[in-house]
């Protein structure tokens, strides 16, 4: 780890147990930021970036600390290996800092107290709350203090936790807890979908960083491949999460029907974090190991095992309802998705991806039974495409193969993926639940409310 001496303004490298106490800076990148090469060769241009470094070093000395870490100048970004190591270590570095100093360059308190309404307006409008990287910079440190543009202290994380929770949508229990547990243990109490929702409305300057900024939140490591694009980076992140977590909330997302090329058909994995915008209240249902879905990545896509009897709940080979071990905390509704099979490739796909199907916890227990999925017949492996399924541009209402429009087995235009006919899933009928009709299901399934997930705009970091 490369640290900057606050008084001598010189770099030094430390390894593992040799690392001294240090302060770490969280901020938005602005104009004329100073790079590692400029600092090392003493060629830093006078401007806001250099002034920020000197002000932070002065603050560190006032607090009694000699060493600081700043992401702009303490990483050699010309070295891809060093950049990859730094990003994979970022959560660890922020959590190990004696204190994290948050500098909000776009906030001027002008003497207003944290309880004043004028302070609330100025504070909540800061672009720091819209950036992807600042989520882990907020959550990882145990001690965190916020400063305004004039380096005037606004308060610590404990005092401002309620305001920050309101602004970010992150539960106050994850922002600040006074117990002795590690920050990692506290954050991992949140489900995969909940942690995804924290980043769903945020932006990063480089498209791939919207996935890379979440590595620390899920305690996973992966190589950085700038140029692969945001979708591939996010799918690689989800693959790493699947390999270590039995948390079916990763499938509890809803796509944006307002996006261009929307078809309603997709992989089981989301292509963008913003699809988790409405998933912050979902958590796994604690069940025995036999009741968990089995899934893994293959060269054919995502493999998913379900009991043979679940396939018998399909009707006329059009599609099935797949319940998840996921509940909504506010009302204990159990969530599910619809899947259907592609007749040419034999792959399965999620249908009506803009919706989640709901059932009560009692209905779920009746459907699952006392022994869970293992008692519903031998497992069958289904394969889902790794990437999101898109229709061919300019050909709404149907999908094409070799220039010809395909039709399904009933003669209707196929609402499927572009390389062939897809047997489409209709809303699950009452008997697809495999239980006796109940009043709750008499009028058909219920769908989770759909909210516009388009992110708000913000200046680049």
Description:
It is a single chain. The radius of gyration is 25 Å and the shape is elongated. The protein has helices spanning 36-40, 48-63, 80-96, 117-124, 134-139, 157-168, 172-175, 183-187, 192-199, 209-212, 215-218, 230-242, 308-311, 361-368, and strands at residues 2-5, 11-13, 22-27, 67-69, 99-103, 144-147, 153-156, 282-284, 294-298, 301-307, 320-328, 333-341, 348-351, 357-359, 379-384, 400-401, 404-405, 446-447. The chain has a 7-stranded mixed beta sheet, sandwiched between helices. Strands 8, 11, 12, 13, 14 and 18 form a 6-stranded antiparallel beta sheet that branches. The relative contact order is 0.10. It has 14 helices and 18 strands.
Characteristic key phrases:
7-stranded mixed beta sheet, elongated, 18 strands, alpha+beta, disordered C terminus, 25% helix, 461 residues
Strand content: 15-25%
Span from first to last CA? 23 Å
For the sheet with most strands, the description reads: 7 strands, mixed
The count of helical stretches stands at 14
Could you say which structural class the secondary elements and strand pairing correspond to?
Answer: alpha+beta
Stretches with pLDDT under 50, minimum 5 residues: 390-461
Counted beta strands:
18
Question: Can you list the strand order of the major beta sheet?
Answer: 2-1-4-3-5-6-7
Q: Over the alpha carbons, how many angstroms does the gyration radius reach?
A: 25 Å
């Amino acid at each position: 780890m490369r640290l900057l001496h606050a008084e001598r303004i010189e770099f030094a490298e430390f390894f593992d147990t040799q690392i001294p106490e240090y302060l770490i800076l969280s901020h938005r990148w602005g104009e004329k930021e100073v790079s590692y090469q400029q600092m090392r060769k003493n060629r830093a241009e006078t401007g806001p970036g250099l002034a920020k470094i000197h002000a932070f070093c002065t603050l560190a000395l006032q607090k009694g600390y000699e060493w600081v870490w700043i992401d702009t100048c303490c990483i050699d970004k010309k070295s891809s290996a060093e950049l990859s190591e730094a990003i994979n270590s970022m959560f660890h570095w922020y959590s190990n800092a004696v204190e994290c100093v948050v500098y909000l360059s776009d906030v001027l308190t002008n003497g207003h107290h944290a309880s004043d309404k004028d302070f609330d307006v100025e504070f909540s409008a800061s672009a720091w709350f819209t950036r992807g990287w600042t989520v882990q910079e907020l959550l990882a440190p145990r001690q965190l203090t916020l400063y305004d543009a004039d380096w005037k202290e606004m308060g610590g994380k404990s005092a401002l936790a309620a305001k920050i929770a309101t602004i970010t949508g992150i539960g106050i229990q994850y922002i600040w807890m006074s117990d002795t547990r590690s920050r990692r243990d506290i954050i991992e109490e949140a489900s995969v979908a909940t942690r995804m929702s924290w980043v769903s409305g945020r932006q990063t300057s480089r498209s791939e960083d919207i996935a890379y900024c979440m590595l620390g939140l899920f305690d996973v490591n992966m190589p950085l491949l700038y140029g692969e694009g945001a979708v591939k980076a996010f799918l690689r992140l989800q693959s790493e999460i699947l390999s270590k977590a039995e948390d079916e909330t990763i499938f509890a997302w809803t796509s944006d029907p307002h996006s261009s090329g929307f078809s309603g058909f997709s992989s089981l994995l989301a292509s963008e974090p913003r699809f988790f915008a409405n998933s912050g209240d979902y958590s796994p249902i604690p069940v025995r190991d036999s009741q968990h879905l089995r899934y893994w990545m293959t060269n054919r896509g995502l493999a998913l095992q379900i009991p043979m009897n679940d396939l018998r709940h399909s009707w006329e080979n059009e599609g099935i309802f797949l319940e998840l071990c996921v509940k909504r905390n506010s009302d204990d509704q159990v969530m599910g998705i619809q899947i259907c099979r592609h007749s040419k490739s034999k792959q399965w796909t999620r249908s009506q991806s803009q919706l989640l199907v709901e059932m009560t916890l009692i209905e779920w227990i009746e459907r699952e039974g006392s022994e869970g999925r293992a008692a519903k017949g031998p497992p069958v492996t289904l394969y889902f495409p790794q990437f999101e399924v898109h229709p061919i541009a300019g050909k709404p209402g149907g999908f094409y193969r070799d220039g010809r429009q395909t039709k399904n087995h009933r003669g209707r235009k196929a609402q499927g993926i572009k390389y062939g006919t897809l047997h489409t899933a209709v809303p699950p009928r009452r008997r697809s639940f495999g239980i006796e009709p109940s009043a709750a299901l008499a009028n058909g399934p219920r769908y989770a409310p759909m909210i516009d997930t388009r992110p708000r705009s913000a200046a680049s970091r």
